[in-house]
Amino acid sequence: MMDKVIKTVFFKSESGNMPVREWLYKLSREERKIIGTEIKTVEFGWPLGMPIVRKLATNLWEVRIILKNRTARVLFTVLNGFMILLHGFIKKSQQTPHEDIELALKRLKRIQGGR
């Protein structure tokens, strides 16, 4: 059996919230399962490129997930062998919204010790 190349963890805010985990719980069980399968694909196959993973910025990638009737994105970074899930959302437009990328970058900065 193949081993995971990287392990997944959720970004945790200073107050202890895990935004991606909370977002996932709001989705249907079926959608969570599809998203989990895609994340597992990244864990076992890292580094991956299109069509599953796309680089957005330095140390920031998105998992591109096609659900039944909509599209989801999970933005993540890779640090010390961990895939840290920074932000998840349902995509409503062609391009990944700037606000979503900014939010993920802000969380990434927090992980890297910045404010």
Short structural description:
With 115 residues, this protein is of the alpha+beta class. The chain is built from three helices and five strands. The chain has a five-stranded mixed β-sheet.
Describe this structure in words.
By secondary structure, this protein is α+β, with helices and mostly antiparallel strands. It has one domain (7-111): YaeB-like fold. It is built from 3 helices and 5 strands. It has helices spanning 19-26, 29-45, 98-111; strands spanning 7-10, 53-57, 60-66, 71-79, 82-91. The protein has a 5-stranded mixed β-sheet with strand order 1-5-4-3-2. Strand 2 and strand 3 form a beta hairpin. The longest helix is centred in the first third of the chain and has 17 residues, at 29-45. It is globular, with a radius of gyration of 13 Å. It starts with 6 loop residues before the first strand and ends with a helix.
Residue windows where pLDDT falls under 50 for at least 5 positions: none
SS content category: alpha+beta
Reported by name, the CATH topology is YaeB-like fold
Q: What proportion of the residues form beta strands (DSSP E)?
A: 25-35%
Largest sheet data: 5 strands, mixed
The N- and C-terminal alpha carbons lie at a distance of 41 Å
Categorize the overall geometry.
globular
